[in-house]
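Why this split exists: single-chain examples teach little about how molecules sit against one another. For that reason, every record in the complexes split bundles all components of an assembly together and asks for one structure covering all of them. Below is a record exactly as it appears in the raw files.
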Amino acid sequence: MGKNITIADVAESLGISKTTVSRAMSGKGRISEATRQRVKAYMEENNYKPNVIAQGLAKSKTYNIGVVMPSDYGIEDMSYFHNCLVGLQEMASLNGYDIILAVCNNNDLGQLKRIISNGKVDGVILMRTLVEDEAVKLLLEQEFPFVVIGMSGYNNVIQIEHNHFEGCKELTLMLLMKKLKRIAVIGGSKAHMVTASRIKGYKAAYTELGMRVPHGLVYLDQDNSIMIERAVDNIFLKGADCIICIDDAICSVVLNKLRKEDIEVPADIKIASFFDSMLLKNNVPAITSLSFDVQEIGRTACKTLIDVLEGNRVKNITYLGYKVELKESTR
Amino acid sequence: MGKNITIADVAESLGISKTTVSRAMSGKGRISEATRQRVKAYMEENNYKPNVIAQGLAKSKTYNIGVVMPSDYGIEDMSYFHNCLVGLQEMASLNGYDIILAVCNNNDLGQLKRIISNGKVDGVILMRTLVEDEAVKLLLEQEFPFVVIGMSGYNNVIQIEHNHFEGCKELTLMLLMKKLKRIAVIGGSKAHMVTASRIKGYKAAYTELGMRVPHGLVYLDQDNSIMIERAVDNIFLKGADCIICIDDAICSVVLNKLRKEDIEVPADIKIASFFDSMLLKNNVPAITSLSFDVQEIGRTACKTLIDVLEGNRVKNITYLGYKVELKESTR
DNA sequence: CTGAAAGCGCTTACAG
DNA sequence: CTGAAAGCGCTTACAG
């Protein structure tokens, strides 16, 4: 694989010191424009690439960012997770960093401990957090630099999240303005920060328009198909005119159920969802949704961590935008 | 984050040389059992962890493995991809290595080039290859150690794959033995080696039984729902008695289409698929499938690369097993 | 059995 | 403007 050329080789060939060569590339310290050009040219020609690991050792840095991914993703989170990684990786490399992967769940932090104690990373990004999160605790305790994606529940933690509250509020507002009145919600675990924020947004929309939040139309903790299907039955009995599904996986189940019952969307009932994944991408009818740019959250989280590592000030919580897309399912 | 203790600290505290300390941990070179125990004990007590990066520099190694993941995964590959990463990561850490991520597609090898030229990895694993693969070419040309997951089409490349040919052949054989005759196939891109291998297996089953492969029942390059639905229509017109879906995503679309048309499975037509993902996991009826252990392929690929890096002999092609599960959908 | 020294490929005070 | 030297945290011939 043709040993890479080193700074020493360059220095020798050019008859100058390694110091000078180093300065030519870093731009630090005084150096004549002439020699700098000479060095640059030589490097270009001979395809010199600095060994980042050696650079790191000298500066006591690794230029690596540890990314902790859960091992137990559900199918609905898959493309979220993949896109997030793509965003993280893109921003990392743009700044000269690389991503090192650790697979962890709340009971087993082995991989996380490993990369922070063997000195392979400068900081860590958590791709998901729980309300009671062991990884967060560990990192806090070790005073190791880190950033979490999504709300963490801990307030002295740097976190990046999509603005679920505002997003869901806006989605609901738009539905209400379409003369829908009895909007139901089906969601998963209340313990997830996301769910709570979205529900708040839903309610805020009603109050903002001076309307009362309809009674008994919010179904949470619906974590399996049976429950969800039953919820759909009840919601229909209660005469709702629309269902907002808190996530795509729930929406899939709802759509299947409606199909089974021969209930037409949007004729008989309107449907809106959250477009985290691609689960609904090609559904007919197209589903009105609130969508988030997942690669962006990866990029932002990564940039934020890098800012931390380089001593720049960062915000404790960064909210990212959302996009409401009205489609056929609420027409 | 409390600076890690170094080998020099240990040496000084114990009044011995760094050399001796190093030997105590590596077990290389003669050293009295007594001092070795003393060193070990001290390290244990003071929670000494060697800096892997420094170890690496001294040995001209990085203990990092670059993993190239495509940026354009389809929904159907998502959990494949995730599980594969989990397997890779597990085996890597078991051997003292870490995974560094590169996101590449065939037109943009920037990230791959980056990690191999900045000296951050000892070797590379390609999570997917194309028939005409630029990454493979690059790696071959640079003589950089690498292993590919799946067939590569290049024969001087170390590759790990599930035996798609044999698997699909066995699946088809079992279907044929159930008196099915006109088995159709719907698949994605021909450019993917997997597709090609599976199709070959399908055909081989017919010839093995001395039967002729039915005409016009193989639909490839079906990469969107519209095409797939049309394929289903055609297949039905042509009087097929079974459809093998080359992947789960395709199968989902097919199942939806059949439901829409009120075609019953397995009464009106049988269905079989490939159980890469969890997309079909809870389908009713349960789907007959050929399934593969994806984490295993990750682990095996990683171990193989590590063997290469450490100078052990490895097989050029490693085939992993498969599992045919006959379920209700072909009853 | 143990240690001084050179080296991995870089950076960065410190001198000049 | 340039260089010799020390250092990042380790390993490994080479001597003893």
